[in-house]
Amino acid sequence: MNFHSKKKLRREFQDFYMISSLPTMRIGLFLTLVLFTCFVIFNYIFFPDSPEQFYYQRFGIISPVLVISILVTYFRPLYKWLHLIYIFLNLLVCVAIFNVGIHSDFSQPGSEYYYTWVMLVVIGLFVFYRMPFYTNVIIGLIQITAFIAATIFNHTLAQKPFFFYNNLFFVFAIYSIGFILAFMFRTLNWKNFLHQKAISKNNLQLQEEINERKQAVVALQLSETQYHNTIDSIPDWIFVVDRNFHVIILNSSLKYGHIGSGQVANTSGKSIDEILPFMPSDTIDELNYVFDQGKILVTEEKISFIDTDVHMEIRKVPIFNDRDVIQVMTILRDRSKEKEVEALKQKNAEQKEIMLREIHHRVKNNLAIVISLLNLQLRNNTDQGLVRIIRDIEMRIRSMALIHEHLYRGENLDRIPLATYLHSLATIITSTFSGHRVNLVTSLDVTDVSIEIALPIGLITNELLTNAYKYAFPRHQDGEIQIHLNKAADDQLTLMIKDNGVGLPDSFSMDSEKSLGMFIVKLLVQQLDGNIDYSGRNGTSFTIQFRNLLVKRQVFL
Predict the structure, then answer these.
(1) Strands 438-444 vs 479-487: parallel, antiparallel or unpaired
(2) Do both 194 and 54 map to the same domain?
(3) Residue 4: inside a domain, yes or no?
(4) Which residues, in sequence order, are CB contacts of 208 under 8 Å at separation 6+?
(5) Which of 390, 413, 436 is at the close of a domain?
(6) Sequential DSSP letters for 74-113
(7) How many CB atoms are closer than 10 A to CB 442?
(8) CATH classification of the domain holding 292
(9) Is the residue at 263 inside a domain?
(10) Angstrom distance (rounded) from CA 244 to CA 535
(11) Domain count along the chain
């Protein structure tokens, strides 16, 4: 601890020592005043002609000091001046000691009470007044000096040296006792102060930990709610099983179909065979494969459901905790209608193209309707947190809608000009953040990709570019964002999004579950069988490398 910190701590302790001692000091001073007054009144009534009565009355010169010392403890605005007030009052006591002593005649009866009164004043200084320790010591010495000076001027030293030194010895003895008491009081209060300060610090840390835990619980609940809402919003049938093949989640679409088929409504803790008897016989083997290999498994099956044959695409997706697969999500998508459409497309290639374009056009329009519905939902919504969430969802939908617009407007229905698509997407996002003074620079190699590549790349670009506009340039400062798409000779593509903003926080991690956006980016990069690198120094940059495979996969997206 440096000098300034120690000085600040001492000053804080002195304030604590003074304020915490005010009730005790107030009671002590009040009792002293009452006892002294009662003693004087008692002697005045029963011994009015006593020569000592003269001294009792003169000692009353410090009564105003006691009264003022008590009164100032009741006025909080004076607390910051208490030290100076008590120093001034005790210096007045020093004057009173000298004034009473210089007019004392040692040859008169009762003069011996003078040094007793001085001893009481000295001990009262150390016991009652919680001034800085060295201030008490100095004022006590001044009081003794006033006593010595008074006894010298009233000729006690010259005429009765034994009487003088004997009294002085007792005064110094009382001073020493008061010195020790004051030191003990201060030491005990210093330990108490440090103890309370440590307790306050621990309480503050504990409260911060409690708040962090509450925030973590709220964030977890929000994340779980978003997770369930997202799954329930998907029209596909989705269920999640644990390693014991017990179903722990059924989305709304599958739940309605499950109950509609005459199955029991309570599915909690039951096995997949009990809840979903229509699943293929090799389902358990496939789930075991996903649990062991940690890879996505996609198959197509024809299953019988309510006396109807349904062509299903069954996608089994592993859910990881660290590196272990703890659950598997199975997504069943009805492909029966698509099979019929494919049969019709084989009969007439031109009709196929027209239908595909119409599908993409309608998907684009439907996504536009979803965006409009989201905007309508936001009109009377004052929850800024929900507004941000819906805006993020809207931007993701726009990135997907833009793909469908390129497909139905383009010449080829099986490929998308990635450079044109990314440029259009960047333009939409830039217009959304039109209030930012940020310059967007693009360098995009011309290349065509399939929708399987364009969709995750669009979502990744949406997340990273939106985050750059939101967080890279606080307070709308000037900056620059660059988007680069480079094509190598071996069909290797590299997408880089970087800015010259404030960079990433030290706690940033792609594995963090707190950021839904980064979680999406990570999953999408895995879907591309690519890899992602990032840097948070001198701004932020994300680099995604993936291979452009324009082949028809035997899976459905």
Answers:
(1) parallel
(2) yes
(3) no
(4) none
(5) 413
(6) G-GGGGGGHHHHHHHHHHHHHHHHHHHHHT--TTSTTTTH
(7) 14
(8) 3.30.450.20
(9) yes
(10) 41
(11) 4
Same domain, 268 and 145: no
Q: Is residue 497 within 8 Å of residue 461, measured between CB atoms?
A: yes
Find tokens 């979680």 and name the residue. 519
pLDDT at 543: 93
pLDDT at 555: 35
Phi, psi angle pair for 492, to nearest 5°? -85, 125
Sequence-separated (6 or more) residues with CB below 8 Å from residue 126? 136, 140, 178, 179, 181, 182
CATH of the domain at 455: 3.30.565.10
Query: Residues 369, 436: one domain?
Result: no
The most distant pair of C-alpha atoms in the chain lies apart, rounded to whole Å, by: 141
Query: Which tokens go with 217?
Result: 């619980």
Residues 270 and 409 in one domain: no
Handedness of CA 136, 139, 143, 148 (dihedral sign): positive
Q: What is the mean pLDDT of each run of 10 residues along the chain (557 residues)?
A: 66 74 80 79 74 68 83 83 84 85 71 77 80 84 87 81 82 84 81 79 85 85 76 79 82 67 58 74 83 86 72 85 85 78 64 52 64 69 69 70 63 74 83 78 88 84 84 81 87 89 82 74 87 86 84 37
Q: How many CB atoms lie within 10 A of CB 76?
A: 8
The type of residue at 359 is I
C-alpha atoms less than 13 angstroms from C-alpha of 321 in its C-beta half-sphere? 5
SS3 479: strand
Cβ neighbours around 424 below 10 Å, total: 17
- Based on the domain organization, do 32 and 77 belong to the same domain? yes
d(CA 469, CA 479) in angstroms, rounded, equals 10
Same domain as 548, residue 489: yes
Q: Which residue has the tokens 């003990």?
A: 184
Distance in angstroms (rounded) separating the CA atoms of residues 179 and 140: 9
Distance CA 456, CA 81 (A): 70
Among left, alpha and beta (phi > 0; psi -120 to 50; other), residue 112 is: alpha
Owning domain of residue 373: 348-413
